[in-house]
Write a structure and sequence with these properties.
single chain; alpha/beta; six-stranded parallel sheet
Length: 524
């Protein structure tokens, strides 16, 4: 089968099949029919949507719950690419592996200002991990294999492969995927042993050490070992926005850190003497003024991406390497040290701080809303768009719940929750999407798709006082929707309806105050 002749469309389909792409998201375009037809013949599952933006965000949602496999997207050319930029940038900011295959005008028309010509490589250079313009049908197999390798190794991210449309019909050689070695791309694997020893000495000598879990922990597979390390060293834990739902219940979870975080977390960050950051980018929502962040602490930063270390906040002990291997090495070093030097119990943290923090809630979003979400017995993924509601849920609920978390944290992409929920549902998750009723007008295509595919997605729409008759519109489109008279009714109504609306006047005041304070903090 090596170097067999096949059309470009067949090469793409066969390589995706052999590389293990079990699900592909397609933005409807007649130009993609040669590829989608071949994919269907290979029994690869396709989800077709109307917009490229929806397709990429859905692939991002799928990749978050795929166990590390990249999401795969097929989009057309020209404006289809510009529609997809939001999803590509969101995946890049949140380190989500994607392979985006786009179409380009024929090779001989590139650079002639042809109809639908777009410099896809130039446009996506700043918002993707890497990109390729395929210049020969014989390069298709190799470029696609490289794209998958780059997307899921090192710090994960999106890779764009731009394919001139005339290559789809040309015959070329198909090469099965082989182990990839790139001279210019060698992501680190193991952290430097000397740096790990320095980090461990700091942790053992510290009086008030603190562990911070970021979104990178969820992608790394290091959570179990980090939990063991935190228990052995009695480390209290704070999280970033993207890591808000990953802290195990048996750790000392102080909640969300940063400007929108809990008071306990803020106090711990200000008082700690060693700050162990794992999979954290140190953006402004965590640090505020970087010059004032952890000013009395030594910072240990473990990350696979060397460009993320000391970019905003200087790391006293930088460790460049994959998080799972670094934490495993730390545990092995700790076990060796404890054989000759028993660990002294720290007493400098206030005793109440080290007690089991089963519920760390300050200025709650609403006791009613938290109680309603807690009343669901089954575990599901809570999806919410960026904004005040996202911050309040992350601070007051998600870290202490048994539910998972789906949101755009790095880019704060608007209208992210519902398209990403489609992908997460395709990955086998049950989803509860929280939206403002005013946002539904932009989501009717997604609502119709969810209804058509019978996905395991439910929507709770909070009416914040804006006049909207969208539930009636949903019923006219044969989308099951109703209104709840009280939050106590919501769980029961969601069993029978796709969409439930609730007028939550108390929430309006909370959101207004949060929006104002966030604007002041950003200097707006």
């Amino acid at each position: 089968m090596n170097n067999t002749q096949a059309s470009g469309a067949s090469i793409i389909a066969r390589l995706l099949a052999e590389i293990g792409a079990s699900h592909i998201f397609v933005a409807r375009d007649e130009m993609l029919l040669p590829i989608t037809k071949k994919l269907s013949e290979l029994n690869i599952q396709l989800t077709c949507v109307d917009l490229s933006r929806t397709a990429v965000l859905a692939a991002e949602g799928w990749a978050r719950f795929s166990g590390g496999q990249p999401g795969v997207v097929l989009i057309g050319q020209g404006s289809k690419v510009t529609e997809a930029i939001t999803g590509i940038a969101s995946a890049s900011a949140d380190s989500i592996p994607l392979v985006v295959i786009s179409l380009q005008v024929p090779l001989n028309r590139i650079g002639t200002d042809a109809n639908k010509e777009l410099d896809t490589v130039g446009i996506t250079r700043s918002c993707s991990k890497h990109n390729y313009l395929v210049r020969s049908v014989d390069e298709l197999s190799e470029d696609l294999a490289k794209a998958f390798h780059i997307a899921r190794t090192g710090r994960p991210g999106p890779v764009v492969v731009d394919v001139p449309i005339n290559l789809l019909a040309q015959l070329g050689s198909f090469q099965p995927p082989m182990p990839i070695k790139l001279r210019s791309y060698n992501p680190p694997s193991r952290g430097h042993l000397g740096q790990l020893k320095k980090a461990l000495r700091l942790l053992l000598e510290a009086k008030k050490p603190l562990l911070c879990l970021g979104g990178g922990v969820a992608h790394s597979g290091a959570l179990a070992d980090l939990s063991r390390l935190a228990k052995k060293l009695n480390l209290p834990v704070v999280t970033t926005l993207s890591g808000a739902a990953i802290c195990p219940n048996d750790l000392i979870n102080l909640g969300l850190a940063g400007e929108a975080g809990s008071q306990l977390a803020k106090q711990a960050v200000n008082q700690c003497d060693v700050f162990l950051a794992c999979g954290v980018r140190f953006d402004w929502r965590l640090t505020g003024d970087p010059q004032q962040f952890c000013r009395n602490a030594s910072i240990i930063h473990i990350d696979v991406d060397p460009t993320s270390i000391s970019r905003q906040v200087r790391a006293d002990v930088p460790v460049v390497g994959t998080l799972d291997l670094a934490v495993r090495d730390l545990l092995e070093l700790l076990d060796e040290m404890l054989k000759s030097h028993p660990l002294q119990v720290r007493t400098d943290w206030p005793p109440q701080l080290l007690q089991d923090q089963s519920q760390v809630v300050t200025e709650p979003l609403s006791n009613q809303l938290v109680e309603m979400l807690s009343s669901f017995e089954a575990s599901f993924v809570i999806a919410v768009d960026p904004g005040p509601l996202q911050q309040l849920l992350a601070r007051d609920y998600i870290g202490q719940s048994h539910h998972q978390w789906l949101t755009s944290s790095g880019l704060s992409a608007e209208r992210h929750a519902l398209p990403a929920a489609i992908g997460a549902a395709k990955a086998g998750k049950s989803i509860l999407v929280l939206l403002e009723t005013s946002q539904l007008a932009a989501h009717l295509p997604e609502l119709m798709l969810i209804n058509q595919l019978q996905l395991d997605i439910k929507l709770l729409c909070l009416d914040l006082g804006e006049s909207c008759r969208l539930p009636a519109i949903c019923r006219a489109l044969d989308i099951s929707a109703t209104e709840a008279a009280s939050l106590d009714e919501v769980p029961r109504l969601l069993n029978d309806h796709l969409l439930v609306q609730f007028s939550f006047n108390r929430l309006t005041d909370d959101l207004s105050e949060t929006t104002f304070s966030a604007s002041v903090e950003q200097g707006l």
